Amino acid sequence: MRRLPPLGSLRAFEAAARLESFKNAAAELGVTPTAISHQVRQLEEELGTPLFIRRTRKVVPTVAGRALAARLGGAFDIMAEAVAQARPRPGRRQATLSATLAFSSRLLVPRAGKFRSLYPGWDLRLHASDEAVDLIAGEADAAIRSGRGGERPGLVSLPLITEYFAPVCSPRIAPRQPEELRQATLIHFDWLFAKPTIQLPNWRTWAEAAGLGGFDTGAGLTFTDENSTIEAAVAGQGIALLSLALVAPELRSGVLVQPFGPLIEGLRFDFVYPEGAEGRPEVATLRDWILGEFGPEATSR
């Protein structure tokens, strides 16, 4: 528990020390000079030391007074900043969008600055989590969720991107033909850990589609999050079966390459919001932004 003198006494002292005048401190704080003098006197009595040398037209802080005033000034600045941040900023609004960790870090974060330029009156709050938030309860204004495109009770789903998976790796270790995968280190993302109720592409289903057999498709390195899986592929630790949508920047830059197919269809990312919320400014702003970035017209460009 903090043992402090009354806040009014500290404010009166700090203003008087900064302005070197009880009169000017009184004007700043909206009280009388007598009140300032009384509060400072109380503080000196509680601390057991004089804080001012009192002269005819001004007061001069003592050594102890200067030291106390310097620390109090910084403390009051911090308090003022905290209070200002807690107050709603006039003319600004905030929209909260929830998405998975991988989608947020790889596809939303690089576009966050563009949101501010497109919607200068809005602040964007990204909620990154692999746990689905309760949109109907208001935990977020909207979300980007992946699935098979089925019904979501109480929610509206607008299709964005369908994922396709293919072998991806660093160009330093890129195989020339699928048969070379038999000697390669395979990198796996543990889909069952992340989405236990959905069967998603894995090396076994890819090998079947490629007509490639005769090797252990379960061996290699396994990670329980997509970001680590991607980082391992970038580092050249093996060949990963990855969502081409999530590694599009690395493929464009050449950090990763897709040596061959086939492509395996995965889940679909949808923009999701509560039914009847179309007219809410937060939902409308997020919908316009996300459809502009990931809608059919955007992805075809």
UniProtKB/TrEMBL annotation:
Keywords: DNA-binding, Transcription, Transcription regulation. Residues 5-62 form the HTH lysR-type domain. It comes from the Bacteria. Pfam families: HTH_1 (PF00126), LysR_substrate (PF03466). InterPro entries: LysR-type_TF_proteobact-type, LysR_HTH_N, LysR_subst-bd, WH-like_DNA-bd_sf, WH_DNA-bd_sf. SUPFAM superfamilies: Periplasmic binding protein-like II, Winged helix' DNA-binding domain. Belongs to the LysR transcriptional regulatory family. This is LysR substrate-binding domain-containing protein. It comes from Ancylobacter oerskovii.
